[in-house]
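Regression report. Comparing outputs from two consecutive submissions.

Submission 1:
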Amino acid sequence: MEFTVVQGDIAAQQADALVNAAGTSLRMGSGVAGALRRGAKGPINEDAISKGPVDLGAVAVTDAYELDAEYVIHAAAMPHYGDGRATSESIRDATRNALKKADELDCESLVIPILGTGAAGFDLETGAQLVCDEVWTYEPTTLTDVRVIAYSESEYQTVANIADQLRSS
């Protein structure tokens, strides 16, 4: 499986599946969710909410509407209750479950952000380590192209450095 780090807007990516950094209610607010909601130009938010709430670390799937993908996999790394903060365990579980769901859907390509590091308040570097480690150690059945995406140049540099460290260890 090819594992690369890219920079840009996830809503502009082309893949079989795009991963939404979701909360357990699956309500699509700001950040990654907002970008995907705007890019989908359809009732993706209502579709996602109808599939929730889900457990922390779980995933749900919707159509991608006008995005250049077949599916959006909503990965709940953030609780929409309590303090609303992601944990190492929730980030690992949500990443692993998103990868598994993509395989179950016979996807060959997937784009995933660093889950839990936006509104959920988790440290970017630690979150990137968790997500990249899960991608790096995942043994796919259909996935051949997994891209971890960062929005800004500085986030991209952080994620790319972590991915390079994993490759060389």
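Submission 2:
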Amino acid sequence: MFASLDLLIAFVLFAFVSSITPGPNNTMLLASGVNFGVRRSVPHALGVSVGFMVMVLAVGLGLGEVFKAAWPVLYTVLRYAGAAYLLYLAWKIATSGPVGTASTAEPKPIGFWAAAAFQWVNPKAWVMAIGAITTYTPAQGYVANVVVIAAVFALVNLPSVGVWVMFGSALRGLLQNPRWLMLFNVLMAALLVVSLYPLLFVESTFHP
């Protein structure tokens, strides 16, 4: 297991800082909190944490390297498919209206499975997973340590991303004016589009 308590504490700090700082997940969760409230955003937050835990396990057990070496073309396809999906999510956020307004298709929050699958095309998630495995996973008892790393990361990640949902929900009162809500959603969509930069132009941040 872990070589020392100091290493575990250092990893928990890394997990907290990397989980709570801005990125595509937290941007979408903030927007979800504003548009749908805490309760309806819970599946989204759970999908982020569980999906990321599975990703850390897979990267730690070598799936990322196998995928990259065996199917490099599909790896490139995944990057650009991820970019297209991120643009779609940005458009959905930008065009979200106030909940409860008359509409033929009422906006819905991102669900558990969609949030979990999104981790595989999220450049920040790749950086976090690779950093956790390469920096904080002792070689002795490696497989058990990968499981511990993934589980601890999920436990730290869930309340961290939950803060963004609650912050978004707290802003709902300030964004009752449809114009301010529209401006907020457009700003969140723009931040998602900006987050495409490392996915498309900084290959090393995406490749395991």
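Expected: both submissions complete independently.
Actual: both completed, but the second showed a warning that disappeared on reload.
Relevant detail on submission 2: Residues 24-60 form the longest helix (37 residues).
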